[in-house]
Design goal:
328 residues, mainly alpha, 13 helices
Length: 328
Amino acid sequence: MTATTAPVAPGLPAACGPLSEAVVTALSSGVTRALPVVPGYVDPLGRDLQLALQTLYELHYRGFAGVDPGLEWDPELLRLRAALEAPFLAYLRENVEPGDDPAAEMDLLSVEETSGTGPSWFFRDEGSWEQMREYFAHRSLYHLKEGDPHAWAIPRLRGRAKASFVAVEFDEFGGGRGDRVHQQLWADLMAAAGLDPTYLGYQDRVTAETLATVNLMSLLGLHRALRGAAIGHFAAIEITSSPGSARLVAGLRRMGAPEECVHFYAEHVEADAVHEQVMRHDVVGDLVEREPELAADVVFGMRALAFLDDLSGDQLMAAWERGESSLL
């Protein structure tokens, strides 16, 4: 079965505070001259900021139904986006331990753990099908654009790093086959699980932590100055994906989940094991050799991914431990 996602752009999200309200109002009206000044202190991981930022980033992806595509480069919206990015990036810089040895960092990431407390471990052994469906809803904001945020790094690379990076992305985009694009495989998974497979279908129900994990990719991808971090982020995904996907495959088979759900993660077990080696040696290795000044940013991208993924995973697990839904 192949789920066909709606060809139209998604609708604007429901605002959850003054910042996101200002963004949604500006986009729906086309009037941007009344955008607010971001206050001196704003919660960098608050849902209001994260939703406002995610909405502005989406102008660079598929946009929104009824929103003028020309607003993508509106100077007032870009000013507001920069003002929202600043506290988010500063928070990450303050909370992610610095490092400057990408090879050593990748060696650590490659060591497969024998136990853990995150969602993939939980689902391997005891999570329920309904909790897994909630997990799918959270992950849909990323997987329905999988490969897209990192593609912005392509024109910022050279030589072997560029060629090898494109080879990995080629697999993300189905190797030239529309039905094999990972975004489509995820839509198939969502439909098989009885969930909404449309792009941003769950934007109003996911938490600030989920939004932050996706916003990080857009932040790194859209800024050439952060290209090293974007590559580190992507490398860390490819290195750590295979073991986690294998645990999810085991959990899905334990639950008797539809084959489309199993297939998505089984595909990543095999593909990402190969991608790991390409990213380690041909992309990160070549990039750092050409531009050694980017080494610290490469490590930052790897560690920022883990930091936000841990926060998001902790939020999910805490809700389930309380016997509550993790969705809003």
